[in-house]
Amino acid sequence: MSSVQTKAHLQAYIDRLHVQLDEARNETGRPPTYRAMREQIRSLTAANEIVRQAARVFEEEVASLQLRIIGLKGDLVAAKAASGIRKPAHLNDAELNVKPDMLARLIRLAHPDKHGNSQASNEATAWLLAQRTSR
Length: 135
Hints:
By secondary structure, the protein is mainly α. The protein folds into two domains: 1-83; 85-135. It contains five helices and no strands. The protein is rod-shaped. The two termini are 55 Å apart.
């Protein structure tokens, strides 16, 4: 049973309990009979167990989603590492020879925010940032 179905089931059950509670109160103002009280205790105990089971289902679902988030974060880190643009092997630091202040200017000029988040600006900025961190 999905969490939405479980929630709807619980709400319907709680509504039925409210009706039973209203019925248990008699209109004369006298307290309910022992038998009615005992039946109400049984009903509330059953309702309590249903709520506890639903809580366990929700807790398991939350734990499962948290594990999925952790896995997706790991996948994201791996994907970022795998797609990172690296300096071509034929270029070494001596050949590149871009001063740090010029590199900072190039990064600002190529930034995706200034170019409609285009693929080319993303790749160029990633490459420039890789140059900055490799120094």
